[in-house]
Amino acid sequence: MDASACPTISFTVPGIPVPWARAGSKGGIRFTPRKQRDYGAAVRTICAETMRRAGAALLDGPVQLSIRATYVPPASWSQKKRAAAQWRIGRPDADNLGKLVADNLNGVAWVDDAQVVSLHIWKTIGDRAELVVEIRGLG
User: Fold this and answer.
1) Which residues are 64's β-sheet partners?
2) For residue 122, which of 81, 94, 100 has the smallest C-alpha distance?
3) Cα–Cα distance between 3 and 31 in angstroms, integer?
4) CA distance linking residue 23 with residue 62, whole number of Å
5) In angstroms, rounded to a whole number, what is the distance separating the alpha carbons of residues 130 and 67?
6) Domains of the chain: which residue ranges?
7) Which residues contact 55 (CB under 8 A, 6 or more apart)?
8) What confidence tens digit (pLDDT) does each residue in 14-48 have?
9) Closest-CA residue to 134 (of 39, 51, 61)
């Protein structure tokens, strides 16, 4: 599929962004933590609905993935500190946010997340916690 036939797909997942985490275990049985599983399902569902409305097909070529994770500052921060804050430093790691999104969009936005050739992730501070995802086919 050439780049001109690939629309840019953008969607927002409301709420605090959840990163990928190692599988937990209980009695030797491995499992994905519920919070991560539920967030991954929300990413898949919102992306699938956005693609359906746009009439976009599953991408099978190279893909650029951009992610902006926005977090609300703690209530304990002063107004001055809130006004000056732009970037979230610290956990979760940006690469774990990317992994959760990329893995959960297999078979929804693209065939396999190995197609992601360009990945941009920003962790910001803002008024509303959300995850904004933009997918662009590169041809």
Assistant:
1) 118, 136
2) 94
3) 38
4) 29
5) 10
6) 3-137
7) none
8) 999 988 876 655 666 666 677 888 899 999 999 99
9) 51
pTM for the complete prediction? 0.84
Nearest by Cα to 69 from 109, 107, 96, 48: 96
d(CA 74, CA 70): 13
Nearest Cα to 136, choosing from 1, 7, 2, 5?
7
Q: How many CB atoms lie within 10 A of CB 133?
A: 22
Q: How many residues does the chain have?
A: 139
pLDDT tens per residue, range 112-129: 999 999 999 999 999 999
For residue 96, give the 3-state DSSP assignment.
Answer: helix
Task: Cis check for the bond before 92: say yes or no (omega within 30 of 0).
Answer: yes
Question: What is the CATH number assigned to the segment(s) 3-137?
Answer: 3.30.1330.70
One-letter amino acid for residue 110 of the chain: W
Place of tokens 């990945």: 119
Q: CB within 8 A of 119, min separation 6: which ones?
A: 64, 65, 66, 67, 98, 102
